[in-house]
Amino acid sequence: MPKSGFVGIIGKPNAGKSTLLNWLLGEKIALVSPKANASRKRVNAIVMHKDNQIILLDTPGLHEKEKLLNKFMLNEALKALSDSDLILFLADVRDNVEKSGYQWFLELNKKNIPHILVLTKTDLVTKEELEGKIKEYEKISKALKIIPISAVEGKGREELLDTIVEYLPDHPYYYDPDIISTEHIRDIYKELIREALFEKLGDEIPYETDILIEKLKEFENLDKVYATIIVERDSQKGMVIGKKGKKIKEIGSYARKLLENFSGKKIYLELFVKVVKGWSKNKKMLEELGYEVEL
Ligand SMILES: Nc1nc2c(ncn2[C@@H]2O[C@H](COP(=O)(O)OP(=O)(O)OP(=O)(O)O)[C@@H](O)[C@H]2O)c(=O)[nH]1
Ligand SMILES: [Mg+2]
Fold first, then answer.
1. Which residues form the KH type-2 domain (predicted)?
2. φ and ψ at 91, to 5 degrees?
3. Which of 13, 77, 112, 285 would staple 279 via disulfide (CB 3.0–4.6 Å)?
């Protein structure tokens, strides 16, 4: 009997959750951005490790804000807690222990939710700093194990996967071991186009935009993708398009590369821009974009 189970990845915004999911999977399916609060939805990845099956759930960063969309994001993260056999709590190793989502971490301890503490981005600190941080966490932590990793240097992957498997239940595979995710292709494309928005637009606009995949036509060596960039205001539409359409071209060609890397096919991508005032506060619009809000 193999081991199989669900593993929720949670932590503060920007801790490196989506990067971890992509890195453990060996494929980029979740959007990554230097800007915090980038992920809005759960994304799953199915990772086979030594004939065991690990189903990873990436979640939006834990934060507290009032907007309807933010409530949805927090809910997504909390749901992952109850749906998981094991939690990976991620903390950026540079953060102060008390600031790295401390209250959420204590909550895991208090509720006896089995979790591994993963200290991320170890390439950005010295060995001494890392050791000091581990000691600090050891004082407050009830984690099964503390594992430092660096996705950039490729360190800690094997130890992390071995440890995850150690704590998973004996269980037959939940999914065909050949599939890498149960996400729909169009949802992965949506996430990757959103990454292009985060990469190519300023600090504010990405938070007020989203992507609607209008149409996806799949051929053997080519996918045709028609997507609308939803913005909140008229002024943002102008910024997304840019002078003589320069900005939207940049977004398009960046996104196209991400889609091509993922699919291994040629991508034809057509982008439109549409103003939908107040979309992030509108339940119906959020649902259309794939965010089911439970109130
Ligand atoms: N140097 C370094 N940077 C990293 C590492 N892992 C992630 N990052 C960077 O940290 C930033 C945030 O990464 P994400 O994976 O998007 O973080 P997240 O936790 O998913 O963020 P949200 O979805 O916003 O909650 C990105 O700029 C990543 O490139 C790492 O191991 N080393
Ligand atoms: Mg993320």
1. 193-277
2. -135, 130
3. 285
Among residues 183, 173, 144, the alpha carbon closest in space to that of 5 is found at 173
Residue owning the nearest CA to atom 10 of ligand 1: 16
62 CA from centroid of ligand 2 (Å): 10
d(CA 47, CA 82): 20
Binding residues: 11-18, 58-62, 120-123
Question: Count of CB atoms within 10 A of residue 199's CB?
Answer: 18
CATH of 4-166, one of 1.20.1640.10, 3.40.50.2300, 3.30.70.380, 3.40.50.300: 3.40.50.300
pLDDT tens digits, one per residue of 145-203: 999 999 999 999 999 999 999 999 999 999 999 999 999 999 999 999 999 999 999 98
The answer to whether the CB of 172 falls within 8 A of the CB of 52 is no
Say yes or no: CB of residue 143 within 6 Å of ligand 1: no
pLDDT, tens digit (0-9, with 9 covering 90-100), for 37-78: 899 999 999 999 999 999 999 999 887 666 777 877 878 888
Strands, E, within 192-247: which ranges?
209-218, 222-231
